Amino acid sequence: MRAAVVAALLPWLSACSAPSYLGEFTEGVTALFDLGDVMRPAGREAEQIAQLAWVLFIGAAILWLLVMALFVYITKQNPRPLSRRWAEALIIGGGGIFPVIVLGILLVWTLPLMPAQRMPGDGLTIRVTGKQWWWKVEYLDANGDEANTVVSANEIRLPKGRRTEIVLAADRVIHSFWIPALAGKTDMIPGQTTRMALEPTKTGTFRGVCAEFCGESHALMAFDAVVLEEPAFKAWLAAEREPADAPRTAAERRGAEVFLTQGCGACHAVRGTPAQAQIGPDLTHFGSRLTLGAGSFDNRSAERQSWVAHAAAMKPGARMPAYASLSDEDLAALDRYLEGLK
Amino acid sequence: MMRYLLPIGVLAVLGALGGIAVVAFGLYNVSASSGHLPGVSWVLNTTFRNSVRLRAPEPESVPDLSIPGYAALGARHYDSACKMCHGAPGEPRSATVLSMVPQPPPLASAVSHWQPNELFWIVRHGIKMSGMPAWPAERDDDVWPVVAFLAQAEDLSVEGYRELAGLPQSPGISPGMSPGMAPGTADAADTGDPIASLAASCVACHGSVDEAPVSPAAPRLDILSAEYMASSLQAYREGRRFSGMMEQAASDLSDQQITALADHFTAPGGAQAARTLAAPPEDIAAIVLGGTGETQTPACAACHGPWPQPLPAGNPPLAGQNRLYLADQMKAFKASTRGGTDRAYLMHRMIDDLDSATIEALAAYYASAR
User: Fold this and answer.
1) Does A260 touch chain B (CB under 8 A)?
2) CATH number for the domain harbouring residue A221
3) pLDDT per residue over A46-67, tens digit each?
4) Are residues A101 and A152 both part of a single domain?
5) For chain A, where are the E strands, in sequence order?
6) PROSITE patterns recorded for this chain (chain B) (predicted)?
7) Residue A46 is part of which domain span?
8) Which domains does chain B have, with CATH numbers?
9) Chain A interface includes B301 (CB < 8 A)
10) Does the beta carbon of B344 lie under 8 angstroms from any beta carbon of chain A?
11) Dihedral in degrees, nearest 10, Cα atoms B53, B58, B61, B65
């Protein structure tokens, strides 16, 4: 893999004057060193950040090479004292004027990027609340009607090509909301709301994380950001707004009964059933989510059953109590029911 | 100076050797029949009194002891657990107890000269090497009914005691046998039904379908399911649920007796259905029903009702339960001094965020069911 990437880079190295090669170079380096989502931007803000990073990296590399070359020249090639005139020119020009010009250009270029990173959204607003250790996600009604809010959790869906306003809050401690492929991070602070906007430029599933230490399961506080084409997103949001499907099979019906009689409804809501609590993640469409336990595990049967029986063993400190007392049949039926909540 | 050092050293070594010999060779006579050497009783008694006065909680920490039936509840526990050694008005003690050293003081003199806070400490912690046991549970609140009884026990008449303890006025034909006593004794022979006579000792404190519990500190049983009562009695018997009174009462019940008692107290047809709760008041509605996102407390209703679906029989319904009992249980959960069945751990997560005003409001709401 690595050899192939180096081979792909060689033509560029031999003809590095053409600007069209710049993109190929940055992509090649990103793949070669596995630089991650920050350098593989899929959103407007992240593209600016990546571009800024590349200019700084490449510019710093060029400056470093120039300084090293000068160093070799004056110590090996021409080790004589400079004339006073040259010495002053080097110190004043290289130590004062040149940095002022370079930093001045960077300042003029980057200052406008700061408001660009915080431009307001132009469409949907999503409110994300950081909890220990999961994300409450609410798709707000366009007319500001709280009753029409669509509540979900631990997964964020976004339309491609639209700027979605993200309003951030926190429950007990400070968290930080970060989807590296889409934008920089923004802190979530109890008692305050912070905001940002996300404008994805590519469809796909991107990993989001909590980027501020928030307790023992901070490392297991993640989520998926799924970017869809706008029509697909609208169809998804309309489906997400609907109450849960009624159980279809006998096993699902048994599972629904377990859910509603074993106390699950004390914390979780499944819209369309008596379970309406907002303490834990809303599970109305849990079966359609990609992950379990806030981006920590695959949403598969074995993981789901293990989660119900021993949540805190999988995620230290999780407030979900262990339901180890459920029989295997009840656990399997509950799993069928949860999987059916598409 | 130096010339005193050697004799002092020799005396110290001899004294130490003497002390070791007393311990190692059993030279001290520990027999109760020989009594104490002169002065030892005074040293022990004085130490006892001063130690209790030093360690007893502040008098201000004594709760309201005039709660209805509090003293009667305490008297009924006293009758089953304490009377054996301390006797009761009109009931002589056994010759064996009278041969103990120290001899347990009879009820009236045991409580004289002590204040309620000191009585609490003695009952809660017991007295080392005296035969006075500690309270069987790591829990303070269920000691206070006994203190309420002891606080008025000094001048108690025979009739007064028997009324408080729920005994018939003429000794010898009591239907309410002591919970700690095994069935099959003289009382059981009266009715011929060992469970009915055992159940009578439960009724003495908990009441029945027709009769409220002797004190609101005791739970009514007619709204509970057989499953819940049986698992609770097992938890008391095995020391998993903590209560000095109930661990004493359940300590020698067999599995069969527990099942039979649980069935005996289950109201025919289930009384739970007859009790309905109004909508909870606004300030606790979120906690009871879990509807809004402001609270961190899981919804009570999902396990304890009101819930549209029938809930598992193992969950205790709260509707109609005594307010004082409910509040005491929630406080005990919060203090981790309740214990319970194998699902009690769930409650700790629920209750940790509640302040005492909310606990009182929740207890009042569930007690308000009609």
Assistant:
1) yes
2) 2.60.40.420
3) 999 999 999 999 999 999 999 9
4) no
5) 125-131, 134-139, 150-153, 155-159, 164-170, 175-178, 186-188, 194-198, 204-210, 222-228, 291-292, 297-298
6) CYTC
7) 2-116
8) 58-164 (1.10.760.10), 175-273 (1.10.760.10), 275-370 (1.10.760.10)
9) yes
10) no
11) 40
Which residues in chain B (309-338) have CB-CB distances under 8 A to chain A? 309-312, 315
A162/A84 same-domain check: no
Is the CB of A258 inside 8 Å of chain B's CB atoms? no
Question: What tokens were used for B344?
Answer: 């009690």
CA atoms within 13 A on the CB side of B178: 19
**What tens digit of pLDDT does each residue of B156-206 get?**
999 999 999 998 876 554 444 444 444 334 444 455 678 888 898 899 999
- In the chain, the amino acid numbered B142 is D
Helix B194-206 vs helix B70-81: angle between axes, to the nearest 10 degrees? 140
Residues A37 and A111 in one domain: yes
Which residue among B290, B303, B350 places its CB closest to the CB of A278? B290
Residue A244 lies in a domain: no
Asked if the structure places residue A111 within a domain, the reply is: yes
Q: Which residue of A261, A266, A325 is in closest CB contact with B290?
A: A266
Cα of first residue to Cα of last residue in chain B, in angstroms, is 88
B353 touches chain A (CB under 8 A): no
**B77/B178 Cα distance (integer angstroms):** 9
State which residue of chain A sits closest to B346, comparing Cα positions.
A321
Q: Are B298 and A267 inside 8 Å of each other by CB?
A: yes
Q: Do residues A70 and A136 both lie within one domain? A: no
Do A145 and A73 lie in one domain? The reply is no
Token reading at A239: 């489906």
Residue listed under structure tokens 């305490």 = B74
User: Is ipTM strictly over 0.85?
Assistant: no
Instruction: Work out the widest C-alpha separation in chain A, in whole angstroms.
Output: 94
Tell whether B7 is within 8 A of chain A (Cβ). Answer: no
Does a structural domain hold residue A237?
no
Residue A41 lies in a domain: yes
Mutate to test the interface with B, among A262, A271, A323 (most CBs of B within 10 A): A262
Domain count across chain A: 3
B288, B342, B346, B353: which to substitute to probe chain A, counting the most A Cβ within 10 Å? B346
* A132 and A110 belong to one structural domain: no
Place B296 in a pLDDT band, splitting at 50, 70 and 90: confident
Residue A194, token pair as written in the block: 């912070």
Encoding tokens for residue B27? 């030279």
Rounded Cα gap, residues A200 and A162, in angstroms: 7
- Interface probe with A: pick from B287, B288, B289, most Cβ of A within 10 Å: B289
pTM: 0.80
Tally of CA atoms within 13 A in the half-sphere of A328 that contains its CB: 1
Cα–Cα distance for residue pair B76/B200, rounded to 1 Å? 12
pLDDT for B215-267, tens place per residue?
Answer: 999 999 988 889 999 999 999 999 999 999 999 999 999 999 999 999 988 86
